[in-house]
Amino acid sequence: MNAPVFLQKTYDMLECCPSEVAEWSKDGRSFVVKQTKQFETSMLPQFFKHNNFASFARQLRFYGFEKSKIHDARFGDVSETGQSWWLFQHPKFLRDDPAKMVSIRRKTCTEAVTTKWEAGEVNELKHRLESLQSTMSSLSSKISALTAAVHTYAAEEMDLLPASKKLKTSPKIEENVTFSPKTVEDGPSLDYGCNFNLDEAFPDVDEHLFASLLDMELPLVC
């Protein structure tokens, strides 16, 4: 039985890869990629039909590899350069015992997801989802109630608006009478203008009497 082609190519790539780009760990139980950009441009195209580090890492995960970001002095001068590297490891992917790769099998997408998310985590996510759905339902009910209240208030305001207009009191209009009496006979023609509020000036005089006075041609001094 042969090892998966992808794993065999990965092993061969590490054997000829410059140590400043990628290399095995000192114990040979894992390997680290130091320069992802150079790894993409100089190494991946030689062994695979792409130059995408993310795709390479994803394939390793499907084969059960663990990926972690490291900053460890055991990989040379990493502590001096201050760079972080990507470490990959699998219990059966070993530098000094490549024959064990034969037993490594690629997982399906479903198996990979099941391995990544344990039952407890899945249940916790379900509980959170149910809680969010309950909260959303409660908020939706409150929004509906507020919307109905706003519509009711607006309708009441529209009903009250005509009534409020009717309640407005019109300003009192005073009835003014203007007199332009004639002068005495043979006297100079003078024009006098006077404004009277009849109700206020003569509260006890009958309105018919006023009418008679207005018809008389008598001089009236203002």
From TrEMBL:
Localisation per UniProt entry: Nucleus
InterPro entries: HSF_DNA-bd, WH-like_DNA-bd_sf, WH_DNA-bd_sf
Major site of localization recorded for this protein: nucleus
Keywords (A to Z) from UniProt: Coiled coil, DNA-binding, Nucleus, Transcription, Transcription regulation
An example Gene Ontology CC term for this record: nucleus
Coiled coil: 122-149
UniProt-listed Pfam families: HSF_DNA-bind (PF00447)
Domain annotation HSF-type DNA-binding: ranges: 2-107
PANTHER family from the UniProt entry: HEAT SHOCK TRANSCRIPTION FACTOR, HSF-TYPE DNA-BINDING DOMAIN-CONTAINING PROTEIN
Protein family according to the UniProt entry: Belongs to the HSF family.
Designated name of the protein: HSF-type DNA-binding domain-containing protein
Species: Aphanomyces euteiches
